[in-house]
Automatic annotation (TrEMBL), chains A, B:
Pfam families: Flavin_Reduct (PF01613). PANTHER family: FLAVIN REDUCTASE LIKE DOMAIN-CONTAINING PROTEIN, FLAVOPROTEIN OXYGENASE. GO terms for molecular function: FMN binding; oxidoreductase activity, acting on the CH-NH group of donors, NAD or NADP as acceptor. It comes from Cyclobacterium xiamenense. Belongs to the flavoredoxin family. Its cofactor is FMN. This is NADH-FMN oxidoreductase RutF, flavin reductase (DIM6/NTAB) family.
Length: 226, 226
């Protein structure tokens, strides 16, 4: 291990569980939201079957659940008050995931405000429909996924709701897709989020070959290769 | 919305669920693992209470579950064959999360190989113990979290296991912690992962103020500020 000079220059601050619980509510929310590290950022597109109104909301709690069959998970906060995205998904099952790029991350953030009507109309992001899928994609997003709900799991510990969904359609910019199935998120321009409100691009270190005990780690490709 | 020039120059490729299922197994695994976007990267430190042996494994499926009380979730693949980390956590409850930096991401990746003994010994990463917590932290990691299992949820859809854990201790480099609770992951040097094997640093775009319908999006701080 090569040591990072920073780790000697900077002291570590300790927070016990009690110190976190005793902290100001806003401090605690920001702090705990940062602990896991960088998070995925997706705009989730849904529609209300009764009113026909579309909905678009930024989510940082989308994660991989399985490849065979292709499944994705979305964790929703406890459904107190209005939760349009969750309500629409539970009601009619269909939703879209859309990667966010530098060119529209501010609009994506603005979708998190309490708009009375569709966030598409409010922010100027455009709806896109294709291959008969009923939920709206975000036009111009470089990676779009059409999903249908498979299962809803309520986590009794704090009433968050985990939606597990089948991946029905994927649209991805061809220039970012490798022959091995790898999708280059930097070629897509995908944005990542930390905490509640900090947005970042990725800066590649390297792709590393499958790790084996009897071999040193081998770099497949690094930043300089591209 | 300002349009990204890329989106006009590059065609979108469509994959139906059937096309994904019909693809080569390795292609499918890489492809589906990339769909959610950038993922958190943590080394999970555990120990076997019976043998005393420590274990260290890289995980990209760690996510925020709640702030009050502070809870974190870790999704484990179906427990077929040896799953040391999951077995240790379920058996004695304690584990650590450790952010990974550029200075040791290759060692972190190497922890994913099938080592006969402790990955600490194998890779040269150093164990650190403090405040009476029994599981090993990774010395030099700029953000370390001590956790105890609260609940184990088996997702029947594909037998993955969701571990929900209480956050008992947090150690964070002081220089990265803001007064508002925000932790600057770039100051920590935290690495993010995409797919199975691609490692990245974050490159800040901006922090954005809480979004409101009647106000344009306001930048709190951007890359140039720091």
């Amino acid at each position: 291990m090569r040591h990072d000079r920073r780790s000697y220059l900077n002291l570590m601050k300790h927070f016990s569980k009690k110190a976190i619980l005793d902290a100001d509510k806003n401090f605690r929310r920001d702090f705990v939201n940062c602990l896991s590290g960088y998070k995925s950022l997706n705009l989730i597109g849904t529609f209300n079957e009764e009113t026909g109104e579309t909905n678009l909301a930024p989510f940082s709690q989308v994660f991989h659940i399985g490849a065979s069959p292709p499944l994705v998970g979305v964790l929703f906060r406890p459904p107190t008050g209005e939760r349009h995205s969750l309500g629409n998904i539970v009601h009619n099952g269909d939703f879209t995931l859309n990667h966010v790029t530098e060119s529209f991350y501010k609009e994506a953030h603005h979708c998190g405000a309490r708009w009375p009507n569709s966030e598409f109309k409010a922010t100027g992001l455009k709806e896109e429909y294709k291959d008969g899928f009923p939920a709206p994609y975000v036009a111009g997003s470089p990676l779009q996924v059409g999903c249908t709900m498979e299962e809803q799991v309520r986590l009794s510990v704090n009433n968050t709701v985990l939606i597990i969904a089948n991946i029905e359609h994927v649209y991805v910019q061809e220039n970012a897709l490798g022959e091995d199935g790898f999708i280059d998120l930097q070629a897509l321009g995908t944005v990542t989020v930390s905490g509640l409100d900090s947005y970042h691009l990725g800066q590649k270190l390297a792709r590393l070959a499958y790790p084996k005990p009897d071999q040193p780690i081998r770099v497949i490709s690094s930043d300089g290769d591209e």
